[in-house]
Amino acid sequence: MFAANLATLMLAKSHLVAVWLFQNTGGEDSAVGWDPISLWKQMGWLARAVVIILFIMSAWSIGVMIDRWIAFSAARKQSRQFAPAVAGALREGKLDEAIRVAERNKKSHLAKVVTAGLQEFKAHGDSSEIPGEQIEASKRALERAEAIVHAELKRGLGGLATIGSTAPFVGLFGTVIGILNAFRKISEQKQTGLGAVAGGISEALVTTALGLFVAIPAVMMFNYFTGKVEAFDVEMDNSSSELVDYFLKKSSVGVRR
To answer: How many whole angstroms separate alpha carbon 134 and alpha carbon 124?
Structure first.
C-alpha cells in the first residue's frame, strides 16, 4: 500500500521536475537560497504549517520508536533470565519461589503471563474445587494476562502506522500549496521565468521530501515492531501451554495421592 502511494506521488511530481529543469529563464530571476533558513523564509504560512505538522509527526514517531525499543529490549532480556529460573522452581514444586521469580522480572512478557496463571492456581489449590475446575480457572487467567500483555506491547504502534500512512499526504498538501504559490507569482509578476516559480516549487519539493522522510522510517519500524509483537505472542502461547501441562501433571499426582 505504501509503495503504491509512493509511486503515485513520484508520478505526480514528475511534471514539477520537468518545469524546474526546462523552465524558460527569459525573465529576470531572483536569487533563491537553498539552506534551511532561506527555504523557511521563502515559504508561505500554510507551507510552514505543513512543515511544523510533519516535524511534530516525526517527533511523535521517534518517541514511539524509542519507547517500544526500550520496552522490547527489557522484555527480551528479563525473559531470558526468567525462563530457566522459573522452570527450575517448578521442577522442584516450589510455586511460591516461582511466583517470587516472576515478580522480580516485571518487565518480562513471559513473567506477566506466568504470574497470573501461578497465582490463580495457588489461590484455588487449597479450595474444595475439583482439579478440572482449578485448571480451567488458571487457563482463563492465562488468557486474560496474554490479552493484557499483548495490548501493552502494541501501545503506540497504531499511531506509528497512522503517521506512516498519512505523512505522504500531508506532504502532498504542501506540494499543492507550493504549486498554487508558483502560479500566483506568475500571475503577479506577469512572467514565467525561474525566479517567478522558484519559491513555489521549492515549497512543493521540500514538503514532499519531508513527508517521505517522516513516512518511510515510520512504516519500516511499524513492520519491525509488529513482527516482534507476533514473536512475543508465540512465546506467551508456548509458555501458557507448558504451564497448563504442568498444572495437569501436578493435579494428577495430587489425585493419585
So the answer is: 6
Backbone angles phi, psi at 35, to 5 degrees: -80, 160
Per-residue pLDDT at 196: 56
Question: How high is the pLDDT of residue 214?
Answer: 93
**Residue 256 vs residues 186, 201, 246, 249: alpha-carbon distances, Å:** 93, 83, 16, 11
Place of cell 511499524: 222
Q: What are phi and psi of 50, to 5 degrees?
A: -60, -45
CB 189 within 8 A of CB 181: no
**DSSP classification of residue 128:** S
User: Distance (Å, rounded) from C-alpha 231 to C-alpha 59?
Assistant: 27
Ramachandran bin of 156, using left for φ above 0, alpha for ψ from -120 to 50, beta for the remaining angles:
left
Q: For 223-232, how does the pLDDT look when each residue is reduced to its tens digit (9 = 90+)? A: 999 999 999 9
Reduced to 3 states (helix: H, G, I; strand: E, B; else coil), residue 34 is: coil
Question: What digits encode the pLDDT tens for the residues 161-172?
Answer: 999 999 999 988
Q: What is the pLDDT of residue 146?
A: 93
Q: What is the CA 6 to chain-centroid distance, rounded?
A: 20
Residue 143 CA to residue 139 CA, distance in Å, equals 6
Q: What is the mean pLDDT of residues 182-194?
A: 67
| Distance between CA atoms of residues 29 and 22, nearest Å | 14
Q: Are 154 and 145 in contact (CB under 8 A)?
A: no
The angle that helices 157-189 and 2-22 make with each other, rounded to 10 degrees, is 20
pTM higher than the cut 0.85: no
